[in-house]
Amino acid sequence: MRGWIIFKETATLLKPETYEVERFMEEAKKQNIDLQVYSPDDFDLTVTMDGDRSILLKGERVPLPDFVMPRMGAGTTYFALAIIRHLERLGVYCVNSSHSIELVKDKLWAQQIMAQKNLPTPKTMLVKFPVNIDLVEQNIGFPVVVKTISGSQGSGVFLSRSRTEFIDLMQLIECTAKNVNIILQEFISNSHGRDLRVFTVGGRAIACFERRAAGDNFKANYSAGGSLHEALMTPEVEWLATQCSKEMGLDVAGIDLLYDQDHFKICEANSSPGFEGLEKVVDINIPREIFHYIRIRLGLFERSKLEEQEEVKPVPQAVKKTKKEKA
């Protein structure tokens, strides 16, 4: 089995995904998978009708791989998406698809899809300058969460705690970046400084953990200094995560859930979820799970020798002590 990771570090990432890429390479070696890492800039795209199953890579025409894993998430550029679409057109299985990556990259579009499917989400509003402050207060209220349309690892997210603070922020944005696309979301107070991240593979929830913010920060992202704790995989949590993954068309996803009284709301979906912190607190091998699913999708049903030696562990159904607590 041959595969490519399409990956490029960007300055907007708080935590580069080098850990995840290295783990994929490590696991691929154990499973005798020929896995290579390339940047979108390594490719040249030429659209033809000759049916040639190859692509230009670093100036040379090379045969296509069995699968491709884009690992750029919200930082996926138009050029990178074009490369992924081109590979899909040539019959290469991409984890995830160009459509799903583009969908979850646009947070408003993703919210519209979830609302259409009757999945619980925070009330969301698209910003239009000049901002009608009274309309925002009537429909969303304060505090209000301000987000850029595209972003990951908690970047581009701000909590305006009052009407005055919100007015100041909107005036600043209007003066400096009027063309930026911004959404507003209701603030779910029960989830202040914490949320749940559910990792799904092939429509199956395989791990669940709670993220807690550092100090008084309302953002719980691990990449922003938050801590991780294994959490209960309730039927509601599992259903929300798997349904969200299904509606977004994501084969591999990180689904973020907000605490809302005794239930949850879906905050957003991630097409290139990190798992460094997850593997530290939950006894699970994420790359192995993903490679196992890819084999199934490609029709390679023979289990690798490594999987024969070690069965895939069941999803934890109750809170367990973290590795640190056990020590």
Automatic annotation (TrEMBL):
Key words of the record: ATP-binding, Ligase, Magnesium, Manganese, Metal-binding, Nucleotide-binding, Protein biosynthesis
Gene3D superfamilies, sorted: 3.40.50.20, ATP-grasp fold, A domain (3.30.1490.20), ATP-grasp fold, B domain (3.30.470.20)
One example of a Gene Ontology biological process annotation: translation
Alphabetical list of InterPro entries matching this protein: ATP-grasp, ATP-grasp_RimK-type, ATP_grasp_subdomain_1, Rimk_N, Rp_bS6_RimK/Lys_biosynth_LsyX
CC terms in the record's Gene Ontology section: cytoplasm
Domain of life: Bacteria
Domain ATP-grasp: 111-295
Recorded GO MF terms: ATP binding; coenzyme F420-2 alpha-glutamyl ligase activity; metal ion binding
Transmembrane portions of the chain: none
Stretches for region Disordered: 307-327
Cofactor requirements of the protein: Mn(2+); Mg(2+)
Protein known as: Ribosomal protein S6 modification protein
Gene from which the chain derives: rimK_3
